[in-house]
């Protein structure tokens, strides 16, 4: 049995528990991709990184649109020999507001929404929700709002149907039919505005928005507003060995790679950490792994030091080695039947090496070669990183992919390495503190590797 808790010393156990405390704080601060970008930027600035678009330095931040960011650290070797790259994604499944969300119905005011990413809709009913986002008013003034995180804040919720009356509407239907996306509307208020005859409850809600937040209804058209779980990350289990919290796919890898980079003293190869948005909807858009951002960043870095020749960007990306840092599914004892227990990852058994993703006949899979998998395995073995294999369920059971395939297009070697997660894509995802620590260790030895 490869159980980490059985293999580590009591001193390391303490390290594992301590490491998780900072991670929980990070999860509580970072519930949207913009919040993650701002967190990464502030940590990097504190550690001497400078803005890469306007500076020359050995440690640079490249950030765009508050939704994609890269960190660069110079190595001993030249950039053309390739970078050690870790890529992770900063977006998580959630519920977004529509451009004109506010409406009144049955003397309640509600927010109309559209979900983002692969959610199981029923998990988002009847739980406390918070509103996070950014709004631009008619003068273009940008404003950040977070409502529902402070103890004095109100929270929001999506009202479900009581069991007494759900027999026909929900009862025997497939779960997706029983809960269509248009029913995920958020309860926003119930008090009518004095002296109004029509839509008085909506008007009162708008009045509060104006008074308290200086927001007008039309401002919501130019806004990125996300509805996320309002609760904080918590220890799970009587032994406090697990962490429950929102957005661990993939912010656990964001946190571990960022922490690993900040803790590195010397690196042979230049390092690039890439944090991308839009993974949960297929990596479409100008801040996704499919965007040209990585190429622009590499070009900027090369221009700093050498006379750049045609194809230099391509050559240095081709020569790079990468980890696609993303979570994999953990065996769930309640639903063991979907897993191949020989190959699936288990909580507490270490960071998972996932040789390939995809589904069915390896469709849409990025698969690491035997040689590169061997390199990673040996690196972990040599450096005391406890690892296991991971696979996304039984063949034909379903499946999924990561951003690995988009970086693989440059010809670099890339492999998926990340911790297993239970409850993936739910408002309360579960990770193991032991796996969290091993993931950090794995990324660190990779970034330091020759
Ligand atoms: Mn993911
Ligand atoms: Mn995901």
What does this structure look like?
This protein is of the alpha/beta class. The protein folds into 2 domains: 4-92 and 246-448, 3-Layer(aba) Sandwich (Aminopeptidase); 94-229, Aminopeptidase i, Domain 2 (Roll). It is built from 12 helices and 23 strands. The protein has a 9-stranded mixed sheet, sandwiched between helices. It is globular and about 70 Å long. The two termini are 31 Å apart. The mean pLDDT is 95. The structure holds manganese (II) ion (2 copies). One manganese (II) ion is lined by residues 89, 249-250, 279, 326-327.
Secondary-structure topology with pairs:
Elements: H1 4-7, H2 10-29, H3 33-46, E1 50-51, E2 59-64, E3 68-73, E4 84-89, E5 94-105, E6 108-116, E7 129-136, E8 142-147, E9 157-158, H4 167-171, H5 175-178, E10 186-189, H6 200-213, E11 223-229, E12 234-236, E13 242-245, H7 248-263, E14 271-276, H8 293-305, H9 312-318, E15 321-324, E16 328-329, E17 351-354, E18 358-359, H10 370-382, E19 387-389, E20 399-400, H11 404-408, E21 413-418, E22 420-421, E23 429-432, H12 433-448
Parallel strand pairs: 1-2, 4-14, 4-15, 15-21, 16-22, 17-19
Antiparallel strand pairs: 2-3, 3-14, 5-6, 5-11, 6-10, 7-8, 7-11, 9-10, 12-13, 13-23, 17-21, 18-20
Helix pairs in contact: 2-12, 7-12, 8-9
One manganese (II) ion (MN) binds at residues 249, 280, 425.
Features:
single chain, 450 residues, alpha/beta, Aminopeptidase, Aminopeptidase i, Domain 2, 2 domains, nine-stranded mixed sheet, seven-stranded antiparallel sheet, 12 helices, 29% helix, globular, binds manganese (II) ion
């Amino acid at each position: 049995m490869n159980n980490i808790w059985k293999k580590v010393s009591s001193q390391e156990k303490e390290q594992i528990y301590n490491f998780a405390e900072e991670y929980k704080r990070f999860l509580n601060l970072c519930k949207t991709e913009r919040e993650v970008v701002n967190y990464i930027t502030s940590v990097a600035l504190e550690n001497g990184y400078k803005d890469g678009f306007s500076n020359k330095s050995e440690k640079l931040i490249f950030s765009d649109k508050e939704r994609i960011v890269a960190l660069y650290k110079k190595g001993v070797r030249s950039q053309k020999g390739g970078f050690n790259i870790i890529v992770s994604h900063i977006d998580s499944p959630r519920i977004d507001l529509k451009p004109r969300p506010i409406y009144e119905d049955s003397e309640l005011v509600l927010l109309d929404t559209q979900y983002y990413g692969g959610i199981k809709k029923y998990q988002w009913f009847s739980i406390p929700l918070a509103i996070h986002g950014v709004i631009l008013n008619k003068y273009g003034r940008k404003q950040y709002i977070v409502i529902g995180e402070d103890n004095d804040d109100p929270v929001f919720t999506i009202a479900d149907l009581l069991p007494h009356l759900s027999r026909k509407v929900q009862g025997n239907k497939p779960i997706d039919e029983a809960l269509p996306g248009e029913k995920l509307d958020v309860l926003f208020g119930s008090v009518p505005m004095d002296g109004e005859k029509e839509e008085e409850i909506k008007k009162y809600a708008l009045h509060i928005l104006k008074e308290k937040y200086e927001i007008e209804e039309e401002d919501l058209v130019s806004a990125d507003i996300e509805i996320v779980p309002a609760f904080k990350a918590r220890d799970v289990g009587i032994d406090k060995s697990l962490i429950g919290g929102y957005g661990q796919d993939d912010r656990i890898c964001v946190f571990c790679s960022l922490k690993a980079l900040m803790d590195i003293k010397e690196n042979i190869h230049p390092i690039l950490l890439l944090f991308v948005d839009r993974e949960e909807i297929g990596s479409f858009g100008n801040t996704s792994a499919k965007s040209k951002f990585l190429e622009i960043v590499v070009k900027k870095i090369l221009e700093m030091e050498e006379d750049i020749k045609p194809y230099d960007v391509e050559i240095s990306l081709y020569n790079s080695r990468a980890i696609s840092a993303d979570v994999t599914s953990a065996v769930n004892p309640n639903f063991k039947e979907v897993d191949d227990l020989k190959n699936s990852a288990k909580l507490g058994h270490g960071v998972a090496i996932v040789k390939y993703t995809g589904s069915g006949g390896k469709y849409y899979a990025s698969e690491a070669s035997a040689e590169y998998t061997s390199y990673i395995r040996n690196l972990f073995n040599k450096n005391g990183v406890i690892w296991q294999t991971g696979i996304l369920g039984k063949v034909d059971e379903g499946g999924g992919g990561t951003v690995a395939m988009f970086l693989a297009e440059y010809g670099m070697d890339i492999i998926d390495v990340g911790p297993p997660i239970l409850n993936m894509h739910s408002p309360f995802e579960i990770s193991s503190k032991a796996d969290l620590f091993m993931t950090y260790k794995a990324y660190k030895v990779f970034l330091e590797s020759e």
